Amino acid sequence: MPAQYLFVFAQVHDEFRIPELESIAELHGFSIKFPDNPEDKKTARPFMVLGLESEEHAKILSQRCVLVKYICEFYARGKTYEELHRENRSRASQWQKYAADTSFKFMVTAFNHTIPQWRQKDVVEGFSYMDFQGKIDMKNPEIVLTCFEEYRDKHGTTRAKDEGDGEFEEVWFGRLVEVGSARPLVKTFDVKKRVYYGNTSMEAEMSLLMANQTLASPGKLIYDPFIGTGSMAYTTAYFGAFVYGSDIDGRQMRGKVKPPGIIRAAAQYGIANRIMDLCTFDVTQNPWRCGELFDAIVTDPPYGVRAGAKRLGRKNVRPPREAPPPVHAPRPDDQPYIPPTRPYELSELARDLVLLARYMLKPRGRLVFFLPTVTEEYKEVDVEAMLCEGMELVANSLQDFGSWGRRLITIRKTTTQKYPPPTFDPAHAVTENVASHIPAHKDFREKYFQGFKKVDTEGIDQDSKKQQ
């Protein structure tokens, strides 16, 4: 039977917690037993008791999962301290082995509250029945006994400093196994401290979460087809993977000085030797001549808020030329030819990306990308409609911005069958239900700059209609 461990999470990106845990567990080949009670599985709370086969698995998760703050061997929980002490006594076999001669200290803290020092002392003295005989060592103890009180969120209210002290929702107790050592990587990869970044660079925390979803590890080969300034390349390479990147605009990758900006930033993190190459090409006109090259594809496609996606081609198709083509003459300024580009509509891009992943990924490989959606219009079929034969949805986590949000989509290649390269035909639909369903992310850029105003079937602005 799996042992129980108390996970304490950072109170951010709550929908990303379970997918991250499952990904790292899959990477290292072990399973996690999640609570049967739906209330105990709610990610809105920062505490969750999970089952693991060994303490080593807990250490692996704490060393890699960005959203984990602490992992403790779980002893007891309760709505009151009386209830907690009663359960803790019933589990004495778990902690009695430390009572005789183990140095220790207590850590008493709270979520959404600050416990005054005098009451922290009272809480510690309440555990006197455990009769620990070892030395109290506040600097370097052999074990740390942890007590967490969980309070309601009181942000936005005016109150005295200690108001509501002791009126917690629940209290948790256990032995600290590991402090989340991956959490400091958020500061390590802080965009503001990077030698090269742009206005579309992904924030460090999200880049790390995306890297974990790819199962990045030593020896794996990962591709970013919209690499831009390389935010995902740094985190995946940091975890040991080799990275290949491309973009339709080489200036994003290069910057204005040599060596290229991405290489300079990678050198800052000591992973420049893991950036295999950076190429400039349109992903719809790519040079790949064989598939199943990559272990994962990770990207943040441009969706038009700060930069729009482009593909080669003209916005307006020229009429057929009647006269013979003119004789080529060299340009007087000797400037290279820059091919015309046209917008790449987001729903087309997303469907094409899934098809490209099916062709380029090895079996069991993952596609990880962000998909912006309109909050009121989003339906699950929006994502299901992108899937094609041989690809399955692994995770769908929302980062909510109010009227819109972006979803981190993780898709796995489940087939060993070989498929032809995608045609990138704008009229092509991956699944039969795409044509009958308009996804919330279609024409996202236009919706964003219109303020997500609803338009009825007659084309009348609903917000204007209400004012009339």
Written overview of the protein:
This protein is elongated. It is an alpha/beta fold. The strands form 3 sheets. It has a 7-stranded mixed β-sheet. Strands 2-1-3-6-5-4 form a 6-stranded mixed β-sheet. A two-stranded antiparallel sheet has the order 11-12. Strand 7, helix 8 and strand 8 form a beta-alpha-beta unit. It has 14 helices and 15 strands. Helix content is 24%, strand content 24%.
Short description:
With 468 residues, this protein is an alpha/beta fold.
Strand order in space, largest sheet: 9-8-7-10-13-15-14
Count of DSSP H/I helices: 14
List the helices and strands in order.
Answer: EHEHEHHEHEEHHEHEHHEEEEHEHEEHH
Low-pLDDT segments: 429-433, 456-460, 464-468
| CA-based gyration radius | 27 Å
The quaternary state of the protein chains shown equals: single chain
Annotation, overall tally of beta strands = 15
The coarse overall form would be elongated
Major sheet: 7 strands, mixed
Mean pLDDT: 89
Helical amount: 10-25%
Structural class: alpha/beta
How many angstroms separate the termini? Answer: 65 Å
Fold topology:
Blueprint: E1 3-9, H1 17-28, E2 47-52, H2 55-64, E3 68-78, H3 81-90, H4 92-95, E4 104-111, H5 117-125, E5 143-150, E6 170-179, H6 185-188, H7 204-213, E7 221-224, H8 231-238, E8 242-247, H9 250-254, H10 261-268, E9 275-280, E10 294-299, E11 310-312, E12 341-343, H11 346-360, E13 361-374, H12 381-384, E14 391-400, E15 404-413, H13 444-449, H14 462-467
Parallel strand pairs: 4-5, 7-8, 7-10, 8-9, 10-13
Antiparallel strand pairs: 1-2, 1-3, 3-6, 5-6, 11-12, 13-15, 14-15
Helix pairs in contact: 1-2, 7-8
